[in-house]
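Dear colleagues,

For the upcoming journal club I promised to circulate an example of a predicted protein-ligand complex. I picked one with LARABZUK because it came up in last month's discussion. The inputs are reproduced below in full, followed by the predicted structure.
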Amino acid sequence: MSVLGQILARKVTEVAERRRALPDAELAARAKDAPALRGFEAALSPPGGPTRIIAEVKRASPSAGAIDATLDAPAQARRYAEAGAAAISVLTDGPGFGGSLDDLRAVRAAVETPLLRKDFVVDAYQLLEARAAGADAALLIVAALSEDGLRRLLDRCGELGLAALVEVHDELDADVALRSGARIIGVNNRNLKTMTVNLATSERILPLLPEGVKGVAESGIRTPDDARRLRRAGAVNLLVGEALVRAADPGALVRELCG
Ligand SMILES: O=C(O)c1ccccc1NCC(=O)[C@H](O)[C@H](O)COP(=O)(O)O
């Protein structure tokens, strides 16, 4: 089974366990009491706008293994926010990425910046969790969902006020995302079958997005040269994880990536 297939199978089990411990109605009551939403979509650059960074809190990954197992999520988020990151992505998957919903809650309390819950959403329950923990947006991965499933989750995001970053890996995914009404599309440069990254994926797909849709280049962006290369292909929003966590001065790298 592919890495993504294994993660998705685990997610189904994990969600069932959490639902037993906290049923939907109780979680929904918590989500209703969640603090005010911050504008994730508005924080991103429109086509042709200035470069904006979605900076990620990432302790580990299937491709890299441990990046920084002891990373202090709120302290890292503060570094990003102070450097002017437009939004912060918090990985909440435990086994693969060393993250948790507690990280999301801690980051929410530490910064005013809009937050993305970065996880593998297979069930609307995870959207309620995201809202209750203080996220302003959730990641939806086309390759992880049926087209109907994607539409249902997009609708649920709308009901909860969450923005949806819809992740695509190729032109077919992008068609599905657009047909489903995605307003923010992330092009992931990481091939989830081989785990290799290729910035040419963003260069190829971002220019195909229509004007009203905000595009994001995701993964494998390490240096200001990478940012400049993507910029030439029209990428204005860059989601960056590992390079920022490994950077001696993450704030300086956020600023340099903005050019
Ligand atoms: O990062 C991985 O190894 C990975 C493996 C399988 C599924 C998803 C994975 N990453 C999630 C992400 O989308 C990245 O964390 C994000 O785009 C930042 O990427 P990077 O800047 O290369 O850390």
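Two points we might discuss: Residues 3-21 form the longest helix (19 residues). The domain at 3-33+40-258 is CATH 3.20.20.70 (TIM Barrel).

See you all on Thursday,
B. R.
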